[in-house]
Predict the structure.
Amino acid sequence: MGYRLHVAKTYKVEYALGDAFSHKCEEFHNLLWACGAEYTGNQYDSDFEVSKDDWQKVIDKLKNLDAIEDESERYEIKESIKDMESTTDEIVKELEYFRDNGDTSDGYLHLSYY
């Protein structure tokens, strides 16, 4: 299982900004799923890709969590955040870092746990 989440940048993987997602591969996949993001692979894959549009959708949902009308969806996202053992603000900060520093020239963020 993966340890720390890294983002591919210009065909190389760089270390993450912090440790918010370390040892949280399955939990991170669950967060993406709860936010409705589509990505390659399944919840146990340590290498996967997320479209930059879906990545932004996750950021937007986390930033506006209380405005989500569907109670079930809001509950699933909050449970996923709890499982990450990070605050929503910490998660958003990391997601924005990956968005801003990852190579999305093909429309996807390429991520890897190792």
About this structure: The mean pLDDT is 89. The two ends are 8 Å apart (CA to CA).
